[in-house]
């Protein structure tokens, strides 16, 4: 008896999605709730599970097709699962896409062909993403999981081994030895120049549309300040061991910045507000969207009521977001409803940037890398660990005075963290 695989509810106001990838092919054995397809919405990728255990039946839509909530996309034949049919040379594993926001998605990775030998080549979605991201051949990796299946650790170890090869090639050659040729752009022979056209995913199209709408609609302006991070770094160094022992989580930088932003937003409520028609909507809460790195770009989950959370609670939420972003298990609801955004380009080495507002929010804070720079203290030139802060804001709602004051409040709190404890 065949059971229907239907498109699940996708969240508030979302009525359709794009079929991003089939994770199971007709004839493949499936367990109940095992992912058989990946759907791309405007916010995130969602896996659709099998309603019953059995064998994958007919696929009713193609990859790239638009499907409505509640629509039937495939069938599963209930009962004992039949052996998986061998894959032909033209069949590939497609990667599951993550939801980036306000940041560029990673370039599409080439498909990885499945081989017939070895049970470990039935890859989980998380393992499949890592294989595709690092351009690995799964048939050449030894699996340590149940029945020889590949685990995330197996694939990550293989990726690290692969990274070691270019490092050896780029090392200086020993005396008398000829260094191997480096892989680089070289003039192509006649007829060898190639181009590749790849259809933008639904996620990428939505991001492009929203970012352009933000530029067309909001009067975006960016103001800057710099912060001496000496006090924050000293506090982390002094209390990191005690903090981790008590709370079971490392004391990071984001806790300081979220608390400082909450303190500043309390004094400058327009930064935490939004424009709706001809009205301004002010919030008595501070829900911070934080950019978190994922395998195929950045996702932006929301820390709810950040103003009321402790340092430990903020760090635990961010760490949990980071883990689940890599696994692709963040939900749509967790990435909706932020009132303010913090983006840390410093983890990638950024010195300075002008971030773009995430509508309908009215402001976004950009953090950058910390580097020692010469500054004047008490008439003396000294080296201090400095960071540039950038606040992009909608000038229709936020005046320059308010934007500058917001950054000054943050600067004061970060250079004297005690102010965050006594609400100054």
Question: If you had to describe this structure to a student in words, what would you say it looks like?
Answer:
- This protein has 424 residues and is α+β, with helices and mostly antiparallel strands.
- Among the domains are: 85 residues, Beta Barrel (OB fold (Dihydrolipoamide Acetyltransferase, E2P)), CATH 2.40.50; 203 residues, 2-Layer Sandwich (Chloramphenicol Acetyltransferase).
- The longest helix has 19 residues.
- About 14% of the residues have low confidence.
- 27% of the residues lie in helices and 24% in strands.
- The N and C termini lie far apart (67 Å).
- Strands 11, 14, 17, 18, 19, 20 and 21 form a seven-stranded mixed sheet that branches.
- The chain has eight helices and 21 strands.
- Helix 5 crosses helix 6 and helix 5 crosses helix 7.
- A hairpin with a 2-residue loop joins strand 12 and strand 13.
Give the name of the CATH superfamily of the domain at 219-421: Chloramphenicol acetyltransferase-like domain
Beta-strand content: 15-25%
Radius of gyration: 25 Å
CATH topology of the domain at 219-421: Chloramphenicol Acetyltransferase
Q: Roughly how many Å apart are the termini?
A: 67 Å
Give the mean pLDDT.
Answer: 79
Percent of residues in helices comes to 25-40%
Taking pLDDT < 50 over at least 5 consecutive residues as the criterion, the unreliable ranges are 82-120, 165-183
| Structural class by SSE content | alpha+beta
Question: The biggest beta sheet, please?
Answer: 7 strands, mixed
